[in-house]
């Protein structure tokens, strides 16, 4: 059984997240993160797709004239880069706003999967922990911004940068999506941000698979409106089966 759990891929936990959001008793905790995502990410993507036809030609114009024939390659790569940057930025904003509710969703799902409630749980604990939760969101943003800035600068280097940047954005975005959603169950147990990243790196292929699926769905209109609670549930299942025993003491100790 233990070997079966260890062999489970990130794709497994992503698919499982879709099933977990439908569990009786869990569905009501899905509603608030879902509403935040629909209102913010839905409106942001509607605006993005109305502007892309103006932005992409401007990006291509940064290329030297003798390389304009590469426009057929740069166009789709530029669109991919813009969508990835945009989707992660606005999903980050949405996640920051919905962080307390996503943490509660993760908490309730963990209790359902393990049969054990966290010592500090419920609405009162949520309000008490709100400053810590928002500080955690700032730590994630501080980790993200300097790395994103380097990739953004790389994108403006003709040919090499414009070709490599979207690929690097994809892998970086997958890693950040993993950090974003796995952080909820880790933070519920007050595991430090650095300790969480170290733990996630030990299973980096699986976690990158999970983050890549979340990132791809975040960039797809309509589907991206549902992805926040799905990712929280998938990440919580992964925490319970792969990390919980390492960071929590057995009952009675």
The amount of helix comes to over 70%
**Strand content range:** under 5%
Mean pLDDT: 80
Structural class: mainly alpha
- Global shape: globular
Number of strands: 0
> Radius of gyration from the CA trace?
19 Å
Low-confidence spans: none
Tell me the series of helices and strands, N- to C-terminal: HHHHHHHHHH
What do you see in this structure?
The chain contains ten helices and no strands. The protein is an all-alpha fold. Helix 4 packs antiparallel against helix 5 and helix 5 runs antiparallel to helix 6. It is globular and about 65 Å long.
List keywords for this structure.
globular, mainly alpha, 253 residues, single chain
Topology:
Blueprint: H1 2-6, H2 10-20, H3 27-60, H4 71-114, H5 123-155, H6 160-188, H7 193-201, H8 204-218, H9 227-242, H10 244-247
Helix pairs in contact: 2-8, 2-9, 3-4, 4-5, 4-6, 4-9, 5-6, 6-7, 6-8, 6-9, 8-9
Summary?
The chain is mostly helical. It has 10 helices and no strands.
